[in-house]
Fold:
Amino acid sequence: MTEPLLCDLSAPGRVAMRFPEPDVPLAELPSLLREDLPLPELSEVDVVRHFTRLSKLNYSIDQGMYPLGSCTMKYNPKINEAMARLPGFALTHPLQPIETVQGNLLLMYELQEWLAEIGGFAGVTLQPAAGAQGELTGVLIIRVYHDARQDFKRTKILIPDSAHGTNPATSAMSGMQVVELKSDERGNVNLEALKSHCDETLAGLMLTNPNTLGLFDENVIEVCRLVHETGGLIYGDGANMNALLGVVRPGELGIDVMHYNLHKTFSTPHGGGGPGSGPVGVAAHLVDFLPYPVVDIIEEGDEELPPLFGLVRPKQSIGRVKSFHGQFGMMVRAYTYLRMHGPEGLRMIAEHAVLNANYLMHLLKGHYHLPYDRICMHEFVVEGQWDDAPDIHALDISKRMMDYNLHPPTNYFPLIVHEALMIEPTETESKQTLDRFVEVMLEIAREAHETPEVLKSAPHITPVGRLDEVKAAKELVLCCGVGSPSD
Amino acid sequence: MNIPADLKYTENDEWIRVDGNTGTVGISDYAQDQLSDIVFVEIIVAEGETHKKGESCATLESVKAAADIYLPVSGKILAVNESLPDKPELVNSDPYGEAWMVKIEIEDASELDGLLDAAGYQEFLAKKA
Structure:
C-alpha cells in the first residue's frame, strides 16, 4: 500500500492534545489502569494528513460516475447534509421526553406517510437499518401473519433466480425453506414453475421488480394473483424502487410488504458515507405486525394546539428490530430529498433513471452482447465476453474501466447471465457523462480485441494493481497489528 | 471441458459415480470453471443421516459467487470428504477426483434414470452456451 497504517506512523509519547493540570484531587484507580494499551500515538497533523491522503486514494460519487447496478449510486445532494446537521435534529437524544422532540416525531410521521403513499401501503416502519434488515423484518412479518392465523404449515418461500442475492439469505435467516424459481426466456417469473410450487406450504414469494436484469416483470399481476390464491403473501424487494417512483405503486400491484432503501432511492449516502436505512411498508392486513415503535398522533390537535405525536406499539408487533428509532439522520436526509422534489419531481427521477439506462443500452448494443433484448428499466445487463476475444472476462473489463476514472459496474451478478456486467447510470448523470461512459466502453471493447493484454493487466493507474482475490478471501487478516509494528 | 463418460450428471452440474449401490457426488469441471477460484467449502450433511434427492449437501463459495450443491439421489450418507474444507482449491484442480464431496447409499436406483449421461450433459451445456 502507498499509505502506512496509523500504528506504523505511531511514535511513543506523541500526542494531539495536552490536557490542563486537574484542579480537583486525583482519584486512585490502580485496578483499572492497563499496563498494555497499545494505541497509536500521533499528532493532530499526522492524523489529518493520513486521512486526507487516504481520501485521495478513494473513489466516490462526488468524484465521478458510479454505475453500480442495483445499488442506485445517485448523487447525494449537499442540502441533505445541511439539514441533518441542524442542531435541532443533530443534538437531540432518543430518550428525550416526546414533548421536547415533537419536530423530530413530526418529521418521522410525515416520512412514514409519504413512503406509504409512494409505495401504495397502509403502514410503514422506519426502524430497519439497511435493506437486508428491512427484508428480514418483512419476512418475519409474513411468518408471524401465518402463525397468527394458526397456519403453521407455511414454511416455503419462493425466490426467482433474478432476485437480489439477499433474498434467499433473508428467508433462510427467518427459518424459511428457500425454493428458487427459474425465469422464462423474457426474464419474467416462469408462471408454470410458479404454479407447480403453489400449495398449502407456501408462505410467500420474494419479488424483485424491476428484477436484477433491469426488467419489469410482465407477469407481476398474475404472480401476485397465483400466490394470493394459494394463501401466500408477496414480499417486494424495493431496492429498485428508483425506476417506479411516481409511476407504479407496488402495493397496488398486489405486493403485501416491501422495503425501501433510503440510501438508494432517496439519496442518503451509501456504505462508508453513512449508515443505511431500510423502512418497510405493509398492506392493511399486516399493519398490526409492524415493529414497535411507530410514530402516530396520540392526541388530536385543535384550532389552537397542534397534534401531539408519540411512539405507539402496533397490536401484534413483531417487536423491535433496531435500538431506538432507527437511523434518524438518514430519515432527515430522505425527508429533505422528498421535500426538494415533490410528487412531480419524484416521477421525473424515475423517468430520467429509465431514460438514461435505455440510452446507454442502445449505444452499447452491438458492441456488447445483450442477453435480454427488451426495453429496460433503470438498469440493464450485458455480457462481458466475446466469442472472438475469449480470454477477456467481465472482471478484466471492470478493472480496465478504473484506468478511465470510472467506477466499474456490478459484475458477475445476476448469476443467470454469463459474465454479467450490470449497469445503472441513475438519473443524476448528464448526457455528457453518459456519452463519456459509452466512449470508454467502446474503447475497452476495441482494446479487448486488439490489445487484450492491456485489459488482463489492468488497472494501471490505481494505487494498487490487480488484487489477489483468492488470497484475500482465504487469508483473512482482520487486525492491523496495533502495538506490534515490527510484526 | 472434461466430462468423464462413466459418470451421471444433473442439470445443476453435480456428478455422481455409481459403484454398486454407493454413489459418490461432486461438481463438474464446467461448474468449477464457471465459479472460478473456490475459496470455501462447507459440507452440511453428516455420515449416517438420510437425505432426499434435491436436498442441499454442501455450500461452495468462490471469489465470484456462492453455490449450493444438491444430492442427485436419495439415501443414507456413508461418508463426507472431511479434508475438502481445508483445501477448497481441489474443487478447481481435481473436480472428479480428490474433490468428491459425499458418498451416499443409493436408496432407489430408479432415481438414476432421471439423470443425464455424459453425452446428454454435453448437449445440455452446449444448449446453455
